[in-house]
């Protein structure tokens, strides 16, 4: 099922949570809404589900205007952050709930409901726990019951709010891989919310980066990591270093020194962004960035050094090979290999 | 109605001398508590039963099956059977409204629910007299339609409802606020309609709190004196509830009969206390489970 969010704005008590958000999700895609807290990602997810209604704008499922429909009629599978399992029902009753509450005309027989619920529990690898209550399950097991319950209604799309947020690191990694496998098997159009970039980059087909109620960038994990289109995305995803530079006649200057990088921005002040590990050391005599080592530490396979740049006493980090001596107070000259320049407003 | 949920938690630790009083101080404190409880709670309770049986069981049972006493018992049961279910419904609706929706004037509404607790029951009764007496706006209209409220059963039910309204609502509001709305949202997203959501999800979530509130509401409804006394008119065999009947008998120096009927009320109190304790054991565990995600 294609999903199209078109020009959606949402205000809570006049406080805007989303500004004019548009998004197209293709059938069968696994999409991550990634952003810091307060970026509006959960609001967007709830709007798609119909748990909130937009102040302006529309949500389409295929060609059908879903904004006119209630949450019940939209037939979406929603997995809540804290699972929201019904604590007084057994696991199998939780999974069968969506089928049990259907109107008489479309409700399967109770045998059929039990059979389908067992099948789903089998699918999420929880067979044998049918008679347990949610309080008797671990976090990871609860998460899987919540997913089975959402899938039982044969939803048109699957929406997950911080699906791994409440789990410890090890279970989180396992479930991440497992969710990807489930998605590859069922081909449900799936949208999940996360603030964890590793999760988004590892799991999603496309990542929607959000900040302050706006979409900053939509792209594959490679695109948002390698070609961030804004200072926010550059600093939010992966590590980045930024330097205060100046554009003059298509060349970048750091204080009174050309650094050998070109830009087609108009003349003026700008931010130079690059990945700390993506630099090449050069000879001091060339046009380059130079700095004095103020701190150096070994991080895994590389050495991370903190440099004090000449001129404006800025400090930045770069990653270099571990066998580089990088003595304190010694000079280092380098050029970023991939970089982006954003005008300073 | 603040019930201490932390009671069953281990309190401090036994090695900590800073919070441990000396042996003497402990015994003195315990003795004071026991003497106080004995004098002010246990003795009166025992004396009710002693007085009731002073002239033997025959007199005791005679006082209970006498027509006026039977009428009073019947009326009390009728009033409780009307007021409690109605307050159950209103209490759930009010708690639902306050706990699950955001709207202007919510704080005011919450305060209003507490009003019957803060107003003297006599005043509550007088309000109904002012509302429904023949000099009021409503009184003549009701009279012309042949509806009697004051000095009749409807007035007693209304006064009882007013006084006992907060019990269910007060019990449910914190519970429902604590539980939030995600369970309901989950049910709705799975296709359940409003009624199914309430019946299969909300109600089971609040059932112990609800039962607790109903229990307290019932105890008060059967025992209410002040408000009912003002609106009842004290017509023997017609508008006397058990507490009013006890008072009349007592004023007539018919102590055995008065204490016999009073012993029924005391028995009700004891049963309520036992049920309440059982519920607290069960319901306390439930609340802790709800808090532990």
Could you explain how this protein is built, in words?
Chain A is an alpha+beta fold and 345 residues long. Chain A is built from nine helices and 20 strands. Chain A has two domains: 3-235, P-loop containing nucleotide triphosphate hydrolases (Rossmann fold); 241-343, Nucleic acid-binding proteins (OB fold (Dihydrolipoamide Acetyltransferase, E2P)), CATH 2.40.50.140. In chain A, 26% of the residues lie in helices and 37% in strands. In chain A, strand 11 and strand 12 form a beta hairpin. The longest helix of chain A is centred in the middle third of the chain and has 18 residues, at 169-186. Chain A is elongated, with a radius of gyration of 25 Å. Chain B has a single domain, classed as MetI-like fold, CATH 1.10.3720. Chain B is built from 13 helices and no strands. The longest helix of chain B is centred in the last third of the chain and has 37 residues, at 255-291. Chain B is globular, with a radius of gyration of 23 Å. Chains A and B meet through strand 6 and helix 5 of A and helix 9 and helix 10 of B.
Average pLDDT taken over every residue of chain A: 90
SS element count, helices of chain B: 13
> Can you list the strand order of the major beta sheet of chain A?
6-7-8-3-9-10
What's the helical proportion of residues of chain B?
A: over 70%
Q: How would you classify the helix and strand content of chain A by structural class? A: alpha+beta
- CATH top level label of the largest domain in chain A: Alpha Beta
Distance between the ends of chain A: 41 Å
Mean pLDDT over the residues of chain B:
87
CATH superfamily of the largest domain in chain A: P-loop containing nucleotide triphosphate hydrolases
**What percent of residues of chain B are in strands?**
under 5%
Radius of gyration of chain A: 25 Å
Shape call of chain A: elongated
Largest interface: A-B, 26 and 19 residues
Portion in strands of chain A:
35-45%
CATH superfamily of chain B: MetI-like
Q: Describe the biggest sheet of chain A?
A: 6 strands, mixed
């Amino acid at each position: 099922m294609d999903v199209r969010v078109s020009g959606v704005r949402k205000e809570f008590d006049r406080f805007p949570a989303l500004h004019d958000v548009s998004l197209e999700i293709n059938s069968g895609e696994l999409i991550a809404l990634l952003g810091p807290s307060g970026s509006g990602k959960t609001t967007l997810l709830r709007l798609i589900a119909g748990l909130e209604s937009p102040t302006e704008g529309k949500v389409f499922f295929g060609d059908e205007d879903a904004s006119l429909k209630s949450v019940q009629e939209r037939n979406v599978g929603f997995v809540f952050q804290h699972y929201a399992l019904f604590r007084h029902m057994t696991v199998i009753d939780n999974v069968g709930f969506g089928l049990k509450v259907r109107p008489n005309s479309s409700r399967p027989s109770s045998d059929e409901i039990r059979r389908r619920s067992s099948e789903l529990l089998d699918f999420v690898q929880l067979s044998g726990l049918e008679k347990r209550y949610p309080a008797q399950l671990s976090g990871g097991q609860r998460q899987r019951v919540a997913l089975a319950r959402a899938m039982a209604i044969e939803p048109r799309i699957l929406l997950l709010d911080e699906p791994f947020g409440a789990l410890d690191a090890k279970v989180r990694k396992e479930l991440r891989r497992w969710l990807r496998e489930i998605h590859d098997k069922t081909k449900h159009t799936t949208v999940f919310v996360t603030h964890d970039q590793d999760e988004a980059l590892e799991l999603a087909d496309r990542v929607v980066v959000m900040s302050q109620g706006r979409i900053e960038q939509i792209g594959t994990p490679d695109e948002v990591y390698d070609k961030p289109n804004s200072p926010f995305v550059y600093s939010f995803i992966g590590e980045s270093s930024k330097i205060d530079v100046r554009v003059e006649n298509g060349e970048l200057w750091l204080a009174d020194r050309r650094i050998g990088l070109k830009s087609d921005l108009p003349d003026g002040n700008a931010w130079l962004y690059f990945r700390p590990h993506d630099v090449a050391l050069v000879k001091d005599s060339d046009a380059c960035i130079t700095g004095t080592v103020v701190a150096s530490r070994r991080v895994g396979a590389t050495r991370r050094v903190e440099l004090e740049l000449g001129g404006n006493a800025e400090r930045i980090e770069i990653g270099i090979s571990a066998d580089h001596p990088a003595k304190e107070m010694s000079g280092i000259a380098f050029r970023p290999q991939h970089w982006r320049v954003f005008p300073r407003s | 109605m603040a019930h201490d949920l932390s009671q069953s938690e281990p309190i401090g630790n036994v090695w900590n001398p800073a919070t441990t009083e000396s042996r003497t101080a402990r015994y003195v404190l315990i003795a004071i508590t026991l003497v106080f409880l004995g004098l002010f709670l246990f003795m009166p309770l025992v004396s009710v039963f002693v007085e009731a049986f002073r002239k033997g069981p025959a007199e005791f049972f005679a006082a209970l099956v006498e027509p006026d006493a039977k009428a009073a018992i019947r009326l009390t049961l009728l009033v409780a059977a009307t007021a409690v279910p109605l307050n159950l419904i209103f209490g759930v609706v009010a708690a639902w409204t306050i706990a699950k929706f955001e709207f202007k004037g919510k704080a005011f509404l919450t305060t209003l629910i507490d009003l019957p607790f803060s107003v003297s029951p006599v005043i509550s009764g007088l309000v109904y007299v002012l509302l429904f007496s023949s000099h009021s706006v409503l009184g003549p209209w009701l009279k012309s339609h042949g509806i009697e409220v004051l000095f009749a059963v409807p007035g007693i039910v209304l006064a009882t409802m007013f006084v006992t309204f907060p019990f269910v609502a007060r019990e449910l509001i914190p519970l429902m606020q604590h539980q939030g709305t995600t369970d309901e949202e989950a049910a709705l997203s799975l296709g359940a309609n409003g009624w199914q959501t309430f019946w299969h999800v909300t109600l089971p979530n609040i059932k112990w709190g609800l039962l607790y509130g109903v229990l307290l509401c019932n105890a008060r409804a059967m025992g209410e004196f002040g408000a009912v006394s003002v609106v009842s008119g004290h017509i023997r065999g017609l508008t006397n509830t058990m507490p009013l009947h006890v008072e009349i008998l007592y004023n007539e120096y018919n102590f055995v009969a008065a204490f016999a009927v009073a012993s029924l009320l005391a028995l009700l109190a004891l049963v309520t206390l036992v049920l309440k304790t059982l519920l607290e054991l069960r319901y306390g565990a439930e609340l802790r489970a709800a808090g532990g995600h």
